[in-house]
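Chapter summary example: a protein plus protoporphyrin IX containing FE.
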Amino acid sequence: MWLTNSSLGRKLVMAITGACLVLFVTFHCLMNSVAILWPEAYNTICFLLGANWYALVASAGLALLFVIHILYAVWLTVQNRKARGNDRYAVTSKPKQVEWASQNMLVLGIVILAFLVLHLVQFWSKMQLAELMGNHEPDPANGIYFIDQAFKCPVTVVAYVIGFIALWFHMTHGFWSMFQSAGWDNGIWMPRLKTIGNWWTSIVVVLFLAQAAVFTIRANRACDCEVSKEWNALAGETVSCCSVIEVIEAEVVETPCCKAAEGECCKAAEGECQGECANCENNQNNQD
Ligand code: HEM
């Protein structure tokens, strides 16, 4: 078959699968933004993309795209090296415009693959796969909870930043190269496509980086109750800093005096915090 027998056909397969993966990565990065702006809506999306038949078909299709893209990449690289024979090791003066990324697409792809394995272990295996296996504890549709768990570990953000950098180099080169493989190789459009590819990839990667930063801060947050209230509730934490404070306040309001002995402020009858033990005595008297 032409798509497997000819080198042009194989390049076209790389281009088509690459284009689909660019669209997936863009969609995924937009979806992650929902997790920041509207966590409840994100969990609803995760529920819809769980072990439902249409989501399983989409995941299988996506996996197939990744597998074909990787296998063809290895195939084309081996073929190119065979064609060049020992010249590969000869000292050749490379034209300046041959970018670093274009010569390291396979290595960059391997770094992204390593990131992906870690990523799927952290998320897919605990969500869609867990649901398929009938494992419902913790709730496999609670994407916010799994994000919180993953980004609590400092290794996650380091591994993700490395993955995103590799993705930037891989995607900026892959973007225009897929048009070239599809035969769209003209002097006017190639520079334009390179600019579009650089912008597109940079926006996606900067969004991913920003998301990783926000998720890391949220997962390891200090006591900033207003910011993390909604996130805490969805991440299903039983004793977060906010809930502790809420519990304390609830107790104090119920029994206005005297919590000071236990190191907490006490409340006057109007519900004002007096803070001092001496006042506590007074409050007690006032109340009586
Ligand atoms: C901050 C960065 C990222 C976060 C927080 C994140 C989060 C998630 C979460 C929660 C899931 C499971 C739920 C879902 O299907 O949406 C997931 C699945 C997935 N992610 Fe990511 N992701 C990130 C970056 C990436 C990148 C850069 C790639 C690819 C290069 C990627 C590839 C995938 C794949 C292939 C799946 C499985 C999709 C499926 O089940 O069909 N992710 N990610």
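Key point: Residues 25, 28, 31-32, 46, 49, 59, 62, 112, 116, 119, 123-124, 127-128, 143, 146-147, 160, 167, 208, 211-212, 215 surround protoporphyrin IX containing FE (CB under 6 Å).
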